[in-house]
Every structure is written in structure tokens, then in C-alpha cells.
Amino acid sequence: MEERENQILQMINGSQTVGVDEIAQRFDISPSTVRKQLNSMHKKGLITRTYGGAEAGWSSSEGGSIVHLEEKTRIAQMAKTYIHDGDIIAIGAGTTTTLLATMLRSAADLTVVTNSLHVASETLKNPKIETRICGGIVRVRNGAIVGPQTGDFFKNMLVDKAFISPDSVTLGFGIADLNAFVSFSQRAIISCARQVFILADHSKIGLDTYTDRIAAFEDVDYLITNREVNQRQLDELGRESTKMKVILA
CA 146, CA 123: separation in Å to the nearest integer? Predict the structure, then answer.
């Protein structure tokens, strides 16, 4: 089902819209099976369901469309394999991390701590997830909660794993974000985690911008990116960090 989901996303991203009959013919399945899968993908926020098919778009509460949706979906799916029932995890704000939250519908006995309204709105759909959300100032653009209250909240937390989606993974600088308030909140989340996962698609690797550092490479356990990442950049990352393990989705 997941492999077919990825292929359907490729079809939709390639043409922006696709019909039920086209998908049914491609995979040799019934139209009713296609409709069920498209409805499931719509609920996850991966596509926008339309009459007779689906189109590219972000249908969750975050609104708008996602750049590199297919790649971010693969990254989120890979990150999900590291989440196990009974875990206490922190999920930061971001599109890739929100995609990860949509994939936790079947999780059981999970605690999610977050500074994102969009992540919380997704995890609340599963009654078997205990959702904890920090106080602070809500950024209208992406639903991230930032500020001193956010730092105080995570200072008193201990989680098994933290999943962060930054603006850039900058060679020679580390994990970074364009907004100082967001970086402050992400640093607070990282500081309370036993293991740190960075979720960043290939467009963010080696991005050289004016940024505010979230973490150095030695503070990170795993970087999950997509297989389209430039090999030269991967080699440079390997030379800069001996601790951080790079995983390709």
C-alpha cells in the first residue's frame, strides 16, 4: 500500500491532477479500491481529493501547497519507522514533521510533545496518542509556537526522540533556520531529547543562507533526507560529521 501510495504521488506531482480510472488502469485495481486509497491519502494531507480523482496539494489544516511533497513524504515515512509504541517523542514545527504526524494514526501508547498547532491537530485524531503542547506565541504563517514559554516548557521535559525540520543543513555551520525565534524553540526541543532526528529534503542540504543555528552536526544522531541529494554534498557532510548518520529515503 505504501509503495502504491508513493507511485500515486509521483503521478499526481507529475501532472498535478489524476483520475480514478487512470490510477485503476495503471495498477490493475478496481475503481473502488482507488477511491478508498485516495480518501486515505487526502486524510493524511498528502493530496487534495477532487470529484473523479485527486490533485496535488496540501489538504491538512496547514493550508497551501508543499514544495517537494513526494520527497518530504518519503522522508516522513522513513522517520516513522524509528517511532515505536511506548515512545515519548518531540515533534517540531514544519511541513515534513506535520506529514510525519499524519502518519501516526495507527500508533498506540505514544506520547507526542510539540510546539506546533498543526502537529497537535493531527495527533489529536488518534485517541491512543497523548498530546502535550507548549505555551508561547503562535506564528500565523505556520502554526509554530515560539518564545520564552516554549523554552521553559521543554527545559522540564525528557523525551526518547526529537524530530526537527529545519530550513537548512549548512556545510561548515550546521542545522539552521531563517527565524531566530524558531531556532530558539528548536534548540529547546533538541536539548530534551536522547536522540535527535533531522528531517530535511535535498533542497535544504548545503543551502547557504543567512541563518540562525539550531544545532551542530555533533548534536544530531540521524539526518534523514531523500535519495536525490547531491553526492558531493553527502561526501562533505561525511567529512564534517563522524557522529551523524545519514539515511536516504
Answer: 19
pTM confidence score: 0.77
Length of the chain: 249
Can you list the pairs that 132-137 forms with residues at least 24 positions away whose Cβ atoms lie under 8 Å? 136/185, 137/181
| Residues 6+ positions from 36 with CB-CB distance below 8 Å | none
Predicted pLDDT of residue 44: 65
What is the SS3 assignment for 110?
strand
What one-character-per-residue DSSP string does 22-66 give? HHHHHHT--HHHHHHHHHHHHHHTSEEEETTEEEES--STT-S--
DSSP at 3: H
Task: Dihedral sign for Cα 196, 201, 206, 209, please.
Answer: negative
Do residues 234 and 246 touch, judged by C-beta distance below 8 A? yes
Contact 197, 225 (CB under 8 A): no
Per-residue pLDDT of 193-210, as tens digits, reads 999 999 999 988 887 665
Among 137, 143, 163, which residue's Cα sits nearest to residue 220? Answer: 163
- Return the C-alpha cell found at 27: 495498477
- Strand-pair partners of 198: 164, 223
Q: What count of Cα atoms within 13 Å lies in the side-chain half-sphere of residue 144? A: 23
- Per residue in 30-88, pLDDT (tens digit) is 999 998 888 877 766 677 777 788 876 554 444 455 667 788 989 999 999 999 999 99
Return the SS3 of 219: helix
